[in-house]
Amino acid sequence: MPNYTFHCKNCGQFTLSFKSTSGNKTQAVCPICQLDAKRVYFPPNLFSYSKELRSRIEKGMEPRRVKKEELGSKQIKKSANIQRPWQV
Hints:
Blueprint: E1 3-8, E2 12-17, E3 27-29, E4 36-39, H1 51-61, H2 68-71
Antiparallel strand pairs: 1-2, 1-4, 3-4
Domain Putative regulatory protein FmdB zinc ribbon: 1-42
Region (Disordered): 65-88
Organism: Heyndrickxia oleronia
């Protein structure tokens, strides 16, 4: 079940678990004071990943220049000389 953290103005932060991921989870009712609370968004925790996985994620974010030799040899198909009657 996914856990969501919310912030109540009176009581502070609390966490709720929902059985479904569908629906609007931007607001919830505080279990203590019954007021509306807004959801708190946290950045992903990349520190728990291994160093190798973190570097692969970071490298994937920036474009990489590839030389023609690195792509391998692809044979380019030459199109047959097709007559197009609509072109004069």
